[in-house]
Amino acid sequence: MIKINNLGYKSLNILILLFIVGISFNLKAEPIFKVKTDLFNLTQPDTLGLTQANHVEHIKVFNAVKDKAQYNHGAVLFGFKNQLFIQWQSSKQDEDGPDTHVLYSTSQTGKNWSQAKTLAPERSNAIVTSGGWWSDGKTLVAFINVWPKNLQPKAGHVEYATSTDGINWSEFLPVLDKNNHPIKGIMEQDLKALPNGRILTAIHIQPGLIATPFYTDDPLAISGWQQAEFTNLEHKGDISRELEPSWFLKANGDIAMVFRDQASSFKVLAALSKNNGESWSLAQLTNMPDSRAKQSAGNFTNGMAYLVNNPTGNKNRMPLVVSLSQTGEYFDQAYILRGKTDLPPMRYQGKYKRVGFSYPKSLVFQGKLWVSYAVNKEDIAVTSLDLAQFEQAHAKQ
Fold first, then answer.
1. How many Cβ atoms sit within 10 Å of the Cβ of residue 188?
2. Dihedral sign, CA of 15, 27, 255, 281?
3. Which residues, including other chains, have CB under 8 Å from residue 365's CB and lie 6 or more apart?
4. Residue 209 above 80 pLDDT?
């Protein structure tokens, strides 16, 4: 039996304390990613000191309809069988109005869009909002989020429908976890796959809306979902501080998940996974400005990481900007996608309406970055950005 005297205990405690402090110091000394200090000039709110991106095109997908579809938001794009699909939520006037339902439109070129069709009709006992897309190449999957009207605290679940032609759809069914149980949570629209095929997103699980990374190896992403190991930051109430995340892959293979910070720091939160999304670090505050809104991240085909958001440092959702990093470690380029001169006046009033280019979601498709968003939460639009200019610049370095 080993005996430790008082001096030994004190020495041991000091060593443990130093070890813990050392770990904390190392974690703080290694940010998940950095942003060039002077990349954004927040004293110039109209431009943030940035220039307009080259080789961009802006296309209107849907115009708000007076007294019928004045509120439109949550637009998300996908590519299926050489065709673009976009879905969004719509209501007569107000955000989360009782008539909220999901519409969709299609395009062969991204320039001319079909007349909007109903993807998920309104329900008497719930509102339905857009949940994103996925495909295994043969079958298109449309996700919707269902918010029961009598559920407290506010929460919901995710359902899916399938189609092989983008016209005829199956009935909506619950998305299942690894134990074949319906997932009790709201799915974030940014589903993307790792190089090994694993699909990652986040689900805001019940009770309330607690943002949690999830992953599945099901090629259709309709079952087998597993909750990753993730500890949320301290928060008040039934909504986590981390919300509405997206993610990109770093050059070293690590995954960076970026979150809206509901604590109103007006900066992006980020967490890191080194094991294909199975476990994540605590989220930490980055020096990337934000408007406390949805954002969208990903990688170009050459591996360059990007983030699309409104990096204003306040609630202003204009301009809409794409920021770039060669390796996902250091963002040192940023360009305006849509600016003040592109923003029309708001035409209709409604609950939670806000001017600006709101809630971007993105897709790399056929050599372009496609970004979908709402204009003043009433019109749906997309912007395309030709990626050849960045791929050529990357190849020269």
1. 27
2. positive
3. 77, 79, 84
4. yes
* pLDDT category of residue 265 using cuts at 50, 70 and 90: very high
Residues 212 and 228 sit within 8 Å (Cβ to Cβ): yes
CATH pick for 31-396 out of 3.40.50.720, 2.60.40.290, 2.120.10.10, 2.115.10.20: 2.120.10.10
For residue 391, give both structure tokens: 């791929």
How confident is the model over 220-258, as pLDDT tens digits?
999 999 999 999 999 999 999 999 999 999 999 999 999
Per the structure block, which two tokens stand in for 360?
A: 């971007």
Partner residues linked to 210 by β-bridges: 205
Mapping DSSP onto H, E and C, the string for the chain reads CCCCCHHHHHHHHHHHHHHHHHHHHHHHHCCCCEECCCCCCCCCCCCCCCCECCCEEEEEEECCECCCECEEEEEEEEEECCEEEEEEEEECCCCCCCCCEEEEEEECCCCCCCCCEEEECCCCCEEEEEEEEEECCCCEEEEEEEEECCCCCCCCEEEEEEECCCCCCCCCEECEECCCCECCEEECCCCEECCCCCEEEEEEECCCEEEEEEEECCCCCCCCEEECECCCCCCCCCECCEEEEEEEECCCCCEEEEEEECCCCCEEEEEEECCCCCECCCCEEEEEECCCCCCEEEECCCCCEEEEECCCCCCCECCEEEEEECCCCEEEEEEEEECHHHCCCCCCCCCCCCCEEEEEEEEEECCEEEEEEEECCCEEEEEEEECHHHHHHHHHC
Is-above-0.90 flag for pTM?
yes
Q: Does position 195 have pLDDT exceeding 80, yes or no?
A: yes
Where in the chain are the domains?
Answer: 31-396
* Span 32-74, pLDDT tens digits: 999 999 999 999 999 999 999 999 999 999 999 999 999 999 9
- Is the pLDDT assigned to residue 100 strictly greater than 80? yes
Q: How far is CA 23 from the centre of its chain?
A: 30
According to the model, what pLDDT value does residue 393 have? Answer: 52
pLDDT of 25 strictly over 60? no
